[in-house]
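Notes to self after the call with IL:
- keep both proteins in one doc
- input above output, always
- annotate only the second one for now

Protein 1:
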Amino acid sequence: MTELAARNYLERSRHDRRVELAKLAHDRHANLSVVMGLSLRVQGHQAHVDYTGGLDTARIYRGLTSPFSSSGDSFLSRIAHYFFSPDVLGRKTKAGSEHVVPRRETRGEEGGKKRDVSSMSCWKLAVAKAAPVDLHGLGASRLDAETAGEYQVRMRAAREKKRRDFAPVLARVDKSALANLARELLEQRRRRRLSGREAVDPVPLPGIGEPTFGSGYVFYGLRFPRGIDGNAEGVQWIVKIPAATSRDDGCGWDELACETLRSEAFLLHMLREETDVPVPEVIDADCRPNNEVGVPWLLMEYVEGRRLEDVWFGRDEGRTRCESGDGDSLKQRRETILRNVAKAMLELGRYEFSTGGALVFDRHHGELVTTTTAPLREVDVKAMVLRWFSDEECSTLPLYCRTGPWGHPRDMYTALLDAWPPDTVAERGVDGLLRLLLGLIEEPGTQSSTECVPCGMAKGEKGRQTKMRKKFVLTHPDLSMRNIVLAEDGTTIKAILGWDGARAAPRSLGNEALPRWLVRDFNPFVWGWEPAADFWRLDQHDAPACNRFEDPPWVLRELRGFYASAMCEERERHKRKVRKTHVTEGEDADPQNDNSGDEDNGNVDTDITKQSLLTLTLDAAIRDPRCRVSVLRRLLEKCSRPFEELDFDFFVDTLGEGHEMDPRKMKYLVSNMKELIDKGFVRGAVVW
């Protein structure tokens, strides 16, 4: 074939095959298309043979990772049989990590319903059943290719499963006693408000709705008739009841569960009285298991509003993000929400602690004790996964372990790692990599000093003022979208929920850290965004369905930068307010009351908010072993350039076998991690 003929053929083939590939991708749902060509010339005659083909790699992946084989045997059970010994569920973990296992009823396979495995289309979906997880599109939202009827059936089955799990608690709730108690509390509130000036009409009993379920709590809504207490819509309250945690009878509560509920009640009352953090009003609480209602309970006002998750993606308006109006207005709305979140979280900085752990409130006066902390009630995801490996139809109630308190921030990070020591070379390698990356965290300094030395006075005399910053700070346990309720304007925060498990956490993971939904792209287990395949398609097409409720990485990076700037501005505004207050009162500025600003942390180079991109990512990997490998792999990919070869497998093999790390690679890792924290990305990295 002459050179001219070859060039003409190649150019014509390139043009013609583009249309073919686009049609192939549309007809066969192929996401990998290839063209193979063979040109021959024999005795002056030439021939061209080419083949166009496509491959649906997603379908093959689903088949390979399907948790159930064609024979009906459980793929997960075979994995569990190979990797885990039969007595693994009964073994004790390392020092001070007792497991609290809720009891459940077991059903034999004979006479029972057959398992419906049609909805478990991949390993990710299957293993997510073992423990609560925030998966957009895999939980309460409709799955791809799922009809409305199938979605309703799946949601109904999930509610029935929750009802069975919470059956011991539901059986103990005395609804009549709860209604009478709520009526008495409302009458007392009315009498206190009126101060005996006029007679108080009797209050009718409230209506109690059907229970709704969280991961570890059951909720009942209480609604009084309209017109009561001057409310045209009717007073609405909600009662929160923890899941049973007793091993003995399956319907009891241990001391730690009751104390967690009691601390939450006191914390909500304190935040509402002393800060501007928007939280629900606490009506009353009784954390004794054997009270008149029959269960420990916390009664709060019902906050009605718009969920942040719906507003963020335009879901409550029945439109997707792309259809929800002008892009600039959506960006402004998000920035206003983030600024309000930063303002609320900065309020928590006034509560500092010497040790890390659960909050302690005085038994007599209910005041917060900042000199000590108590053992923390942590969800043990690994224990839940092991339980699920043994029985895929097991209860979904959380398993808890008792950890802490801690005197050093690093000990709090590694508590769950220490509770489950690694057994194999691979586990030791992953454990070692986690601890290696934890060593890169720059914990804010614990002490800084300012000196006011008058003329003629030596240092160390009366003019010296020393400011001590404590290592731990009050922190919300899960600052995620589902825990934020917005007002009707879509930007004002009406209430921040989910305070059970609030703790004194290290400052690097504390109140100035990023909201967790802004670091989703570092956790492939929960992040469902996929790039659009428009590099071969000529026609217009819709973005993947999973992208409707996910943000792409460049958007998340921009929002992280904005939140860090907003937090810095709020710190400066708070400092000016404190100084102005002292000047107005004729006092000198007290550095002990000015708990904001990086310069007060003893390390002016540490930006807590930016660094929390790393700390939150590592914290997620430590808490959930299901995503540990994928998170660490993604983290190394995001801070690795091609020529630097910061390979995940290399780190795991080297650390697992006990070898020393290559100094050159360690130098690259430290330098690139700093660039990732400062800029939000590493220039030239292998992934976004």
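Protein 2 (the one to annotate):
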Amino acid sequence: MEVKEESEELSEVKEESEELMEVKEEREELSEVKEESEELSEVKEEMKEESEELSEVKEESEELSEVKEESDELMEVKEESEELSEVKEQSEELSEVKEESEELSEVKEESDELMEVKEESDELMEVKEECEELSEVKEESEELSEVKEESEELTFLKEIRAKKSFTCTQCGKSFTSKQNLENHMRIHTGEKPFSCDQCGKSFKDRANRNQHMRIHTGEKPFSCDQCGKGFSQSSYLNVHMRIHTGEKPFSCDQCGKSFKDRANCNQHMRIHTGEKPFSCDHCDKTFLRASVLKTHLKVHTKEKPHLCSVCGKSFSLLLYLHAHQKIHTGVREYMCFECEKTFTTANSLKLHQRIHTGEKPYKCSHCDKRFNQPSSLKTHERIHTGEKPYKCSHCDKRFSQPSNLKTHEMIHTGEQRYKCSHCDKRFNQPSTLKTHEMIHTGEQPYKCSHCDKRFNQPSNLKTHEMIHTGEQPYKCSHCDKRFSQPSTLKTHEMIHTGEQPYKCSHCDKRFSQPSSLKTHERIHSGEQPYKCSHCDKRFNLSANLKTHEMIHTGEQPYKCSHCDKRFSHSAHLKTHERIHTGEKPYKCSHCDKRFSHSSSLKTHERIHTGEKPYKCSHCDQRFSRSEHLKTHEMIHTAEKPYKCSHCDQRFSQSVHLKTHEMIHTGEKPHTCDQCGKSFTIKSRLNLHMKIHAVEKPLKHSLRSQC
């Protein structure tokens, strides 16, 4: 009985399959429609060229109402597609029948009658496949309905075009209206009849002029429904929306990188092709983009038409003005989700995020170094090429970066626009001001990953960490010496070249570094701006203050790798280690004597030159070393700053105090290697050694007499 019921169900299914066959015939008809749609797609491609003219065809939308009536017929096709969806549901029921047919295969062994049922189940499988094909047909029919609508519109437009055809006599292009032809002809004639009443800029058509006017009025009628940002053109809004959706439909066929708009994709492709179609008329420089060329031209014209209404500062680009105005308003709308740091521009955020990701997409073509922004790569490559395109307008000095030129020119102008909020000191760079203010606030945000030391500048941290890593990437082109900083290398190479570009304004002395000149001029001015927080002593160098304060704190962070001795200054450690290595890199230019320290060489050479630059302020006596002058002046002042910790005796020199305290401690560090006798000072040991020097020849003469 069960088999009979199933056979009845199968007969019903067979009837349904016959209906499906009819649907299949309809599908064949639809395939013919599809062929027609392909022909229509060709028409669509032809009509794509006339997409610009469709803006005016919109005005004739009233005529398209007739087309709408014809589209009702297509609704019937849509109803048929709904029927197909019902067929799809029936096909799902058939899949259940398939499961039952698998059970019937087991019943086959019990009954021969089920053989016929099995054949019918095979037919049902074919029906299922046809159902799946029909579901595809449904999708195709929906697409075809859309294509048909478009084709009817295009057919209608083609008829309009046939009725209204206006052809350009210059290039042969045809238009649907006389107005469109007139607008097109302005490309050939160069006519721009529509001008802005605010700035005088001219345009070929009224629509572009109206869009331009929104720059002056500030009108932004198109707003984002996600973030509320406004735009002057709908196309700008469409591109902006891709930020929220993450859509990047345009991809590079060379590297696969995706972009939100076609223009950026095309610009990116020029990186691969090397094409730079935009060239400067004033110099030989070429550019990837017209906007970059436009910005570059303002370097030659010195034009800065955009003025800040708050502080009066002028800018060459409106973009720069807008970025600058955010300093006054405090608006920082772009936030990093990794560290919550905020930025004024999307590009600044993008560059910052590469710190977290470690991405460095820009590689130097001369070495293996990589960078996270193209400007850093460009600046770096100038090290290899030696290019210095930025020349000082006051002297012949040239620079590889415009920021360095700007800073240099402030030496000539004396401009120092950035004032410290804690003291009266002024600076010519905001970064220098920021670093200086950290002295007042005590802020040291950059911590060493190897030790607990902190710094107020990332460059100082980087330099410090090279002590731990031992990295010295910068090599001297004249000798084999290497350095951890490019500035140190540059200073060192001046020893070889003899270059000393910085001259003292008070005397004829010259220096290889501006910092050395500044320090030297404090000898003339007597300025000592750095005061010890533990005592009243003042210094003309921050480094000297730091070294001095270590006397109070007892800090000695630098340990010798050869012995247990520690030092408060890295330079002292370096000088000390030369005792172990025997290195004496500084050679006297007058004799063959060599020295382990540059200051020792400098002092020694004064023996040859007779130079005594340090003059006593109380008498006419002069000295070759500043410490000798200081010691001498204590004779006039009777100053004895060094007091014995065991008694009340005082001394004018620290070495005398140290020697005196050995009387109390009994320490005698200098021992004779002949007899073992010890002394408090080395000069007494040297005097004692002469006794042994006299004894040796005396003993030798006594032996010869025997």
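Annotation: The first strand starts at residue 166 and ends at 167. Residues 698-706 have pLDDT under 50 and may be disordered.
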